[in-house]
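re: the backbone from monday

yeah here it is again, tokenized this time
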């Protein structure tokens, strides 16, 4: 892809915001959730999270006081394929439909209007090689 995808910002109910502005993303906050709380990436090293964020279209969810409270990322070729991944909302912000807002924001982004396939985590529709998080990232010292 040539250039950076257009930045996107959306106001959500309750004063929350969703943004793709890279300067607002906080890789350490994303890593902290994935590494400690997620079922799918527990134990993931920080450097791996930083690399994946650098190669993805990221959607940060921010509270009314600008704190990062949720996240989603899309791995895409910006043409035919997009994979929605790592969607989460911190537990204390659940019950406000913020996860749905994140998914809707990702699907509504202008560069994602064209992919023939947008994949969620449904292995019946794609080839997948699965390994446990413990196999890939043995628990070591936290960053």
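seq for it, each position gets an aa:
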């Amino acid at each position: 892809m040539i250039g950076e995808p257009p930045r996107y910002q959306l106001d959500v109910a309750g004063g929350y915001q969703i943004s793709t502005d890279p300067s607002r993303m906080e890789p350490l906050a994303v890593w902290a959730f994935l590494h400690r709380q997620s079922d799918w990436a527990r134990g993931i090293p920080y450097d791996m999270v930083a690399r994946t964020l650098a190669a993805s279209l990221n959607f940060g969810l921010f509270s009314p006081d600008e704190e990062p409270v949720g996240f989603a990322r899309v791995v895409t070729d910006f043409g035919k394929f997009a994979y929605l991944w790592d969607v989460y909302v911190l537990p204390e912000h659940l019950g406000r439909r913020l996860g749905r807002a994140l998914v809707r924001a990702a699907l509504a982004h202008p560069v994602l209007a064209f992919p023939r396939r947008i994949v969620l985590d449904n292995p019946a529709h794609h080839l997948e090689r699965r390994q446990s998080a413990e196999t890939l990232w043995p628990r070591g010292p936290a960053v």
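The chain is about 25% helix and 25% strand. Residues 98-108 form the longest helix (11 residues).
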